[in-house]
Write a structure and sequence with these properties.
With about 350 residues, the protein is of the alpha/beta class. It is built from eleven helices and twelve strands. The chain folds into three domains: about 40 residues, no CATH class; about 120 residues, Rossmann fold; about 130 residues, Rossmann fold, CATH 3.40.50. Helix 8 links the parallel strand 6 and strand 7. The protein is elongated and about 75 Å long.
Length: about 350
């Protein structure tokens, strides 16, 4: 008969303290969801006898239960994208009878402090009633670590953090870049493209750039040229920087297609091109990614990639619901599909 593995031996295998392993096995607080998941998975593998699950009882969701929604301060006022995603989150919570609390988090916290993660993130809330945390958009890794330390289920929305073991729901950004690149190269026969982006803005911009590169590799010819203009979109002043760079190009060097990392970049640049005498789409075609409402109203109407924003929010709430119901299951990294919307600009 095989011997039951000791808590100390499990702690040694996982690189954890005996105390942390004991708390995780007993279902007590004091360890993160990611740590608890690692301990339980090893315990199952080694045949460690876990306590029998408690009989089903009333739902832990009470009248005061809420989901904490954290949104980066720089994204809070974006009505065309983030406010629509937020509307999907709120709708998803309402369908389940959950309340929600929204906080606009700073991107850093004091390094030396005696405050708990809960006190740093939202000291005014009753954390005992918090069902979980949804983080909208990009946050630095140390801030996300702080959120994990609250012990609440955590889901990242429109952000990828490979160092964290938590659920993520994202747009298929690489597919989006690939689709728009395919459209311009194979459909519109463009041969000199520029991708306008800012990798410091978010992971999604970098992934869209990768998708465009893949389309160039698949559908481009030996004569195809893809330039990538890294612009200070997040910091501001990017439009002037791009116009100045464009002004240094000889007429024969000018691109015949421009891809904005999002629709806002594409629409602003399209208008600037027209102001400096470059007609769209006759001399240069312009496309974006996101399909914000203004894309169908621009002049000319913007060709873009549709990424469901309200749907992204609702799917994130579904993912949090699953995590609450099944805390020990493997993490999920979900991608929502992308659809080409061809219009007048390309």
């Amino acid at each position: 008969m095989s011997r039951k593995p000791s808590i100390q031996s499990m702690a040694d295998q996982l690189g954890l303290s005996k105390y942390a392993v004991s708390r995780a096995l007993s279902g007590k607080s004091g360890v993160s969801p990611a740590t608890r998941e690692r301990v339980l998975e090893l315990a199952k593998t080694l045949g460690y006898g876990l306590p029998a699950p408690k009989a089903a009882g009333p739902s832990p969701v009470s009248a005061s239960s809420f989901v904490l929604i954290c949104i980066n301060q720089t994204n809070r006022g974006d009505a065309s994208y983030w406010q629509r995603v937020l509307a999907g989150l709120i709708s998803g919570c309402s369908e389940r009878g959950w309340h929600h609390a929204i906080v606009s988090q700073p991107v850093s916290f004091p390094a030396a402090t005696t405050l708990s993660p809960q006190e740093l993130i939202a000291p005014h809330l009753d954390w005992g009633s918090c069902l979980g945390i949804i983080v909208m958009g990009a946050y630095p890794y140390p801030v996300l670590q702080l959120m994990v330390r609250t012990g609440k289920p955590l889901v990242l929305l429109d952000h990828h953090e490979p160092l964290l073991s938590c659920d993520e729901v994202n747009h298929a950004n690489i597919d989006a870049g690939f689709l728009i690149g395919h459209h311009l190269l194979a459909g519109r026969k463009c041969r000199r493209l520029v991708f306008l982006g800012d990798d410091g803005r978010s992971t999604s911009f970098a992934e869209r750039r990768i998708g465009v590169r893949l389309a160039r590799d698949r559908y481009g010819s030996p004569e195809t040229e893809l330039q990538e203009w890294e612009l200070p979109y997040e910091a501001g002043g990017w439009l002037e920087a791009a116009a100045e760079r464009f002004g240094r190009l000889a007429p024969g060097e000018r691109p015949d297609a421009w891809i904005g990392a999002n629709d806002d970049i594409a629409m602003q640049w399209m208008q600037r091109l027209r102001q400096i005498g470059c007609s769209v789409p006759e001399e240069a075609q312009v496309a974006g990614i996101d399909n914000v409402e203004g894309a169908a109203l621009s002049s000319p109407r913007l060709t873009t990639i549709h990424l469901g924003k309200e749907e992204l929010g609702r799917r994130t709430v579904e993912t949090l619901e699953r995590r609450i119901a099944h805390p020990g299951t493997p993490i999920e990294r979900i991608q929502m599909g992308a659809v080409l919307i061809p219009r007048d600009s390309a």
